[in-house]
Amino acid sequence: MLPVVQGGASPERLRHCFVQTRLRFKSVEWAAEYFMGNTTRFVNGPPVPEVEVEEQKVQAPEGLQVIEALLYPASGNIPDRAELSRQVRLLLARSTYYRKYWSELPLGLPQIADALRLEVFRVTTLGISGFDAPLAGTTVEEARAALGSVAELVQLLDKQSLAAPFFRAADAELAGVRNLDGFDRLHFIRERCSPLSRALLQWQLREGISFLADNRLLRPQAATLFDADAFDPDAFVAGSELRSTPLKAQLGKRLFYDPVLSGDGKRSCASCHRPDKGFADGLARNSGLSGSRLRRNTPTLLNAALQPGYFYDLRATNLENQAAAVIRDPEEMHGNLARSLKSLLATPAYAELMGHAFPGVDVYTEQHLQHALAVYVRSLSTLSSRFDRYMRGEPGAVLGVEERKGFNLFLGKARCGTCHFLPLFNGTVPPSFQKIESEVLGVPDQKGGRRPDPDPGRYALTPVAPFLHAFKTTTVRNAARTAPYMHNGVFATLEEVIEFYDQGGGAGSGIEVPNQTLPAEPLRLTGEEQQQLIAFLSTLNDTLPWAPGRG
């Protein structure tokens, strides 16, 4: 591509070469992402600055997505050929690492099998949403290239070729797509991607290829992304001794509903995380103990374990630390865990529960209370919505026409799925599900306002420019139950949220947000399409088997 750039080729010629380059990358994406992720994030990472949090350093973006933005500007012309040439040279330099790595490292069959199934999941969650090629419009061609490369390798490894028909069916459906807006992604995922990933799992089992034993959120043995047990709520615990047990959850549940953990003995965790409100509270911002409003909206705890970071500013990396921070916060609970522990151990019922939950422990500590609460929150993981049951093919689970259209908008024109990733619908990035995203949306300080909310977000903890007003991408599962929305609760309804996104976030609404990560261009959703999105979101309401109380 570099000679074409340096030769002063026309924009059309440059874009053609770019598309061919992307397709070639997609043909090795399964290996590049799996074996050389650190290099690949600079080859095909998002076109936003990369922040090294611990060092508080900012790495300028580079790679294919940056080149795409240079080649597809809103004006239609290519304004900066010098920068385009520089980015292509950077891309070439990064690409040489692949050849060196793969020529020297023997690839084991378990790793290859794992990488191939993850590539199918990558196409399912990121590829067909246009996550990494939003401007070029090559979503379908790239999905074909990615799946085609997997098919070629599986054909060499699968002696019975039992997966081949599934690859052919997926390719044929993609080949029949005439325009992206008409692409029935729901059908493609349910009827093509999921059967394909099942076939690859069966091949791995039939050939006796072992599964990797690493601890991850998406279980290595998951047949599809929508299996009821595909995700492990204990994936982010620090050690095997911290894995959940029913008796720990029983203790944690009782603590959750007991105000004994608060400083004044009047507020429990359930005071703000109410089961009847989807484990949120239904308020824009709850009241602090002093009577003033808390800084931020109360998020749902449903499926909170299925993410690697907590609080809107991601300041906690596990649920144990999250629980302790809330209890100690002078406005939220103003509790003292050491004092509460002493009181609880003096209560026979609690002393008995502690003994059952942590057998063989001679000295209980504050960490045991934190852990019990965290285990209870992990027990609130449930991927049991009507949408999930439909994707699993369970009898009686159906989606209506408007709901199906809403899903296809979610993953297509409305671009919701490029931040709220399938199937968790939060910011935990598939298919590895090890990192969670934050975004700068330009949320106003009040509905219809022209000033950004003053909350600095992640910037308060890591003072680098990209993190100013950056907040965690939260789940839209159970969103129909957990109004109001955004970190400050500024929007009371889903209609208001969708209108905000449709306008292009804060920047599209006239707010000055120089570091906004949400595209400022309007989505141009019709009123009917906005209602279809809301209809789909209602299918993400999980079944809630938990009854309040101290049981």
Automatic annotation (TrEMBL):
Cited SUPFAM superfamilies = Cytochrome c
Keywords of the record:
Heme, Iron, Metal-binding, Oxidoreductase, Peroxidase, Signal
- Domain Cytochrome c intervals: 247-381, 401-541
Q: Which domain of life is it from?
A: Bacteria
| Cell compartments where the protein resides | Cell envelope
InterPro entries from the UniProt entry: Cyt_c-like_dom, Cyt_c-like_dom_sf, Cytochrome_c_Peroxidase/MauG, Di-haem_cyt_c_peroxidsae, Imelysin_sf
Please tell me the species this chain comes from.
Flaviaesturariibacter amylovorans
Q: Name one GO molecular function term.
A: peroxidase activity
What the entry lists under Pfam families is as follows:
CCP_MauG (PF03150)
- Identification of the protein by name: Cytochrome c peroxidase
